[in-house]
Amino acid sequence: MATTDVILETRDLTKSFKGFTAVDKVNLSIQRGHIHALIGPNGAGKTTVFNLLTKYLIPTSGQILLNGKDITPIEASTIARMGMVRSFQISAVFPKLSVLENVRVALQRKEGNSFHFWKSDKVLNNLNEQAERLLDSVGLLSFAHAKTLDLSYGRKRALELATTLALEPEMLLLDEPTQGMGHEDVGVVADLIKKVSANRTILMVEHNLHVVSRLADRITVLQRGAVLTEGDYATVSADPRVKEAYLGIAATEEAA
Hints:
Elements: E1 6-17, E2 20-26, E3 29-31, E4 35-39, H1 46-53, E5 61-66, E6 69-70, H2 76-81, E7 84-87, H3 99-110, H4 121-124, H5 128-137, H6 153-165, E8 171-175, H7 183-196, E9 201-205, H8 209-215, E10 218-223, E11 226-231, H9 233-238, H10 240-255
Parallel strand pairs: 4-9, 4-10, 7-8, 8-9
Antiparallel strand pairs: 1-2, 1-3, 1-5, 5-6, 10-11
């Protein structure tokens, strides 16, 4: 396990929309090397917090710190270069390109050459070895020359993860990584998340409590825009407020 220093921190993070407070003085402390899950019932503010962290939204007040540096006023592209990258919000792949070509595009983005995928194969083939290593890391090497649109949903998610890893992030933010998946794909993607968490930190919003219990070192529960409680899965799942606000709802749905 990695050291316990803090990589990402929020201080009284707040977001209001026309008088409605969607995020209310949220304080997060994400330990380096951990998988940290953000959970809560619908309307709890999870997505808004995520959008604040990744600069899709601007906070009304409060601070966001990455490795001790205040990144509140910094734009998303700069933060990505600083090592914090968001994945899984919407498909970030090109469906008509091959799986290998998608990863090559991502590798060029890291080098600041986003548009070089229009250049000759001779130029692009220099990136093949790196691209193949990334595909192997997510179990897609045998699909390298397949068209992306022909992949199953779970494999497209694995490809998105490979394109994100091409940026060599220190921290990954995953937005509902198993949403809309069948049981088999959920297991595959959960395994991948665990595998790629080596030597990096992951913060994920996730509705699947089985995945959370399996992966998360620490869990923050939100309710009505504020932190309800925080701890490991055993601590959080035993909290009667959590059972009432979230786990009870999920258990009822699963039993239905």
